[in-house]
Amino acid sequence: MVKTEMKDSRLGPEEKLFSGVLLLNAKVVGLALGVIFGLGIFVATNWLVIKGGSRVGPHLILLSQYFIGYKVTFLGSLIGAAYGFALGTICGALMGWIYNRLATFRQ
Amino acid sequence: MDKKSAVIIGAGPAGLAAGYEFIKQGIGPLVLERSGTVGGISRTESYKGFHFDIGGHRFFSKNDDINRIWQEMLGSDFLQVSRLSRIYYQNKFFNYPLRPANALFNLGPVESLLILLSYCRARFAPQPEESSFEQWIINRFGERLYRTFFKTYTEKVWGISCKEIKADWAAQRIKGLSLLVAVSNALFGGGQQAKSLVEQFNYPKYGPGMMWQRFKDHINAGGGKVMLNCEVSSVRHDNGRISKIVYFNGKEVQEVSAENFISSMPISSLIKLLKPQPPAEVLQSAEQLAYRAFIIVVLIVDKAVLFPDQWLYVHSPKVQVGRIQNFKNWSRFMVPDQSRTSIGMEYFCNENDPTWNMPDHELIEFAQREMAEMGFGPASQVIDSYVVRQSYAYPVYDSTYEKNLQNIRNYLYSFKNLQTIGRSGMHRYNNMDHSMQTGILAAKNCCGERHDLWTVNEEKSYLEEDRTVREIPTVPEKVLIKAFARMDKFAFATAFGAICGLLVFSATMWIISRGGDVLNSHLRLLAQYFIGYTVTVKGAFIAFGYSFFWGFLFGWLFAYLRNLFLAIYIYRIKRKAELLSLKDFFDNF
Known about the structure:
The structure holds two protein chains of two kinds.
Chain A: E1 2-5, H1 13-19, E2 21-24, H2 26-51, H3 74-106
Antiparallel strand pairs in A: 1-2
Helix pairs in contact in A: 2-3
Chain B: E1 6-9, H1 13-24, E2 30-32, E3 44-47, E4 50-53, H2 64-74, E5 78-82, E6 85-89, E7 92-95, H3 100-107, H4 109-124, H5 133-141, H6 143-149, H7 151-158, H8 167-173, H9 179-188, E8 200-204, H10 208-221, E9 225-227, E10 231-238, E11 241-248, E12 253-257, E13 260-263, H11 267-273, E14 274-275, H12 280-288, E15 291-301, E16 311-314, E17 323-326, E18 341-349, H13 354-357, H14 360-373, E19 382-395, H15 401-412, E20 418-420, H16 422-426, H17 432-446, H18 459-465, H19 477-483, H20 489-514, H21 537-582
Parallel strand pairs in B: 1-2, 1-13, 2-9, 6-16, 10-14, 13-20
Antiparallel strand pairs in B: 3-4, 5-8, 6-7, 10-11, 11-12, 15-18, 15-19, 16-17, 17-18
Helix pairs in contact in B: 1-10, 1-17, 3-4, 4-5, 5-6, 5-8, 9-21, 11-12, 12-15, 20-21
């Protein structure tokens, strides 16, 4: 998940513990965020499907404006999860990349 | 002169361990010992069947090789002893290591409260300067606890005010403070255990002298020779090599030449014996290295039980005695008659100071008075007594020792066939196992290996050479460093803000690109938070600005809190490790 950038290789390990700057592994952050987004949509959709009612998920269905083919159904939850995973992965990877570039630059 | 011959000065643990290693390598060394007994400061003296140590010596090492050698030498004569040692203060016994309930009970509620308040004061308003031992301890424990448990004993041992002892010394004495090891252990368990906290230790049936006698026999049987009562009078050198050693064996002056020389005699004495003499500044450095001496007054008491401890730390300022050993509690074989007890009243002093120069009978009377004052029985119960003076007992880490020692080391490096080992030989606070390790490594060096003896007992570099020591983090340092690296707040805030901004921007643009009743899209609800936002291209940029701003704030706060909690976590681990290490403090004297 993480890499570190050391200011000075001559520092003792205890100083390194505090002087090291966290670098993110962009791919892993992307994957993690993708899984969270995907699972979030999957669970949220199926929660409403299980609850049932006359109108199932009148607000969540708005996601279909962005995720083409998404519905508040079990099949829709799988489609939404795929979309969520893709979006989360892209966002996470991008965030990791921007963070790393900035953190390295600031070193 | 044999190509692989070796002369070892001193038959203490270091010298004998070097001899042992030479025998293992097929070389018969000559070991010259000044006194009539092997073991150095770890020897066992005997008097009318009573055996006693010069200070107590537990056999416990984190080094597997040393443990193996000890077992090989003594086997079934090694007893396993359950440790009991307490602090004697204000006529009460405090558990050592200190236990809160016991300390609270003994000190009483008022004193305990005052200690707690003093501790809180030190935590919240520490002394800004931390250059002396006194300040170092007060900043960690509070002034009251310092005065109760640290000041008197430390001053008894070193004979100087705690204000004059450098804080560095305290930090050096306290092992196990490696933050990485502490963090690793806190996360994954396992790892080190402070030496004093080991509840059991090994002890030879008849005291440590038994161990060193076995070493002596082993060396003699293996082709080497351990000669007692041989005092080295000069160490001759020529062309950067030690050429011969001159010694007096009690009858005549003798000379011995060898290829390798190893010395465990006090390093300052070695410098003074070198011929030709070293440069004046080296001699001056040797002159300035100080050692603390030690007197043990053995009192044989006609009483079966005095106290159950192996030893007591005497923190009471009313008496001069620093430690009391109860030898039969180390091993019942230390006394010939179980209805009697032999205790060793230990007095720390300087060579030739008034205590050192006190005649034996006065010392005995003094010790008897103090024993009675402490409530261990009247002087009339003492049926016999014996006094031992031990010079060069503790190398003193004063403010100049490092510079002086470095001068001496630099000079001694010029001799290709001379190595110094052991506590006195290196002017370093080595325990028995460390001293033995230096001896073994020195002997290996003579056989072609390359070891830096000065890294022994300097845990980190020592570990890199010798993986048998287990005081290492349970996970690699690099992994820990990566895991605890701080997050760059600005970078994370910017990255998070950018992603939030891009998401809302893209969402708005997506709706616009799809066409239809764009302005009535549900996305317009964002205007409740982002004033001025509409589902338009302009609105997309406004949304980006708002989202970036809030995302930046949230990201910065997240990174800040992450770093803060991590720092608090590390601080707590370090404090805990520090406290655990300090429990070991008095055992380091």
